[in-house]
Amino acid sequence: GTAVERFASRVEQASGGSLQIKLYPKDTLVPALAVFDATSAGQIDMFHSGPYYWKGKNSAFALFSGTPFGFTAEEINTWMLYGDGYSLWREMYARHNLYPFMGGNTNVQMGGWFRKPIEKLSDLKGLKMRIPGLGGDVMAKLGVNPILLAAGDIYTALERSTIDATEWVGPALDLRMGFYKVAPYYYSGWHEPGSILELTLNKRKWERLGSEHQAIIELASTELNNHMAFDFANENGKALVELKAKGIEVRNFPQDVMEAAKKAFEEVIVEQSALSEDFARVWQNTLSFLNQSKAWSQVGLGHYLNLR
């Protein structure tokens, strides 16, 4: 997308042309969901994606994207930079010959588009929904069949009723995907309150770069990460107006769905922690930082938003 194009342009500008990054659209060099392995093996030098797509490699990877009912965009960026987020992420990716940077934040994501309204918890039972990461694990406990689809396949799957629902990002990108035409029931979010994307390099390739080029990539990725969050804030506001003009009403999930989702998330955490020492370690670190951050967020931003 434009954010990654800007990143590549900034790297070239800052390096005086001595470092250039050639971009390829998804599914051009390798399939979109194969970029992790391809970069690890050195078939490509880097990729832009989201850590939760690789939870099959290590369940802890999903935590580096964020969690349901977890960090906001501001909070997860803070954990990465001033807590242990980056050090844990890089330690675990190093096992796969990878070196990650934050590559953007979508801010709070919406809860998804549904072909039929969700009026009670039982309405979720048996639904096929495109939803990745820990949000998908939670939905599975609520009776949903979570499905992982690449972006280009989602609309057609909805249109043909291969799936019954999908989450994507937020109003701006959702509008562009046209989901409102085939699944008109739009819900507010809970599963990705501040999702981190990644710019991840082949680690050996990264280590062979000179310190100047490494610094340029680090600075350009920081700029990308910041700009994306601000861009989404701007574009989502405009897109929401347009969606409302098309007759789309943003709905909230029923209370019994949210209560069940919170309970299910607790169960997922317990189960995944028992299965993976990495998951348990990252989760405990996340939880400690989240509890500290929540205390300030509630008396600071939370109080202000209630007043506004």
Give a short summary of the structure.
It is built from eleven helices and nine strands. The protein is α/β, with parallel strands linked by helices.
Provide structural commentary.
The strands form two sheets. Strands 5-4-6-3-7-9 form a six-stranded mixed beta sheet. It has a three-stranded antiparallel beta sheet with strand order 1-8-2. The protein is built from eleven helices and nine strands. The protein has two domains: 2-107 and 193-238, Bacterial extracellular solute-binding protein, family 7 (D-Maltodextrin-Binding Protein, domain 2); 112-191 and 248-307, Periplasmic binding protein-like II (D-Maltodextrin-Binding Protein, domain 2, 3-Layer(aba) Sandwich). With 308 residues, the chain is of the alpha/beta class. The protein is globular, with a radius of gyration of 19 Å. Helix content is 51%, strand content 11%.
What layout of secondary structure does this protein have?
Blueprint: H1 2-14, H2 35-40, E1 46-49, H3 73-82, H4 85-94, E2 98-105, E3 112-114, E4 128-130, H5 133-141, E5 145-147, H6 151-159, E6 165-166, H7 171-177, E7 185-187, E8 196-202, H8 203-208, H9 211-245, E9 250-251, H10 255-275, H11 277-307
Parallel strand pairs: 4-5, 4-6, 7-9
Antiparallel strand pairs: 1-8, 2-8, 3-6, 3-7
Helix pairs in contact: 1-9, 5-10, 7-9, 10-11
